[in-house]
Amino acid sequence: MPTSRQSDPRARTYVIDHVKPGTRFERRIRVCHGTTGPVELQIYAGAAEIDGDSFRAVEGPRANELSGWISVDPAAVTVPAKGEVLVDATVDVRDDATGGDAAILVEAPAVARPDGVKVASRVGVRV
Fold it and tell me: Is the whole model's pTM more than 0.85, yes or no?
């Protein structure tokens, strides 16, 4: 988090920087899990929106203005059992930026249940 946001508790959970168009900044995101085996995860920026008083990521890997400015490295990781991996997110705010909402999403591959329904898990960090 930037030093100017040290006293803002949201800065420990979200990317909440207020920057001018043309700014580039980076954040490090910790990806962890507590299962007994390694897990392969995909990481990407996706569109999000405010709906009433709720923030939600838009279904699927859709892009919008803000998510198009965000890149993550690496885009896929294997997190060891009960471990963590650090991922770098870079936000390149275009000169003609108008704003928006996005999320950096971490997604586990879909797993088929006995009834044939596939269930995927996805969590994110608000941007």
Answer: no
- The enclosing domain of 100 has a CATH number of 2.60.40.10
Instruction: Determine the structural domain holding residue 36 and report its residue range.
Output: 18-126
pLDDT by position in tens, the chain (length 127):
556 656 665 555 566 667 788 989 898 999 998 889 999 999 999 988 888 888 888 876 667 888 888 999 999 999 999 999 999 999 999 898 877 788 999 999 888 889 989 888 888 888 8
Per DSSP (E only), the strands in the chain are 24-32, 39-51, 54-57, 70-73, 76-79, 84-92, 102-107, 111-112, 118-119, 122-126
Residue 6 lies in a domain: no
Q: Kindly report the backbone phi and psi dihedral angles of residue 79, in degrees, each rounded to the nearest multiple of 5, phi listed first.
A: -90, 125
Q: Is 49 inside a domain boundary?
A: yes
Within 21-117, residue ranges assigned H as helices are: none
What is the total count of domains within the chain? 1
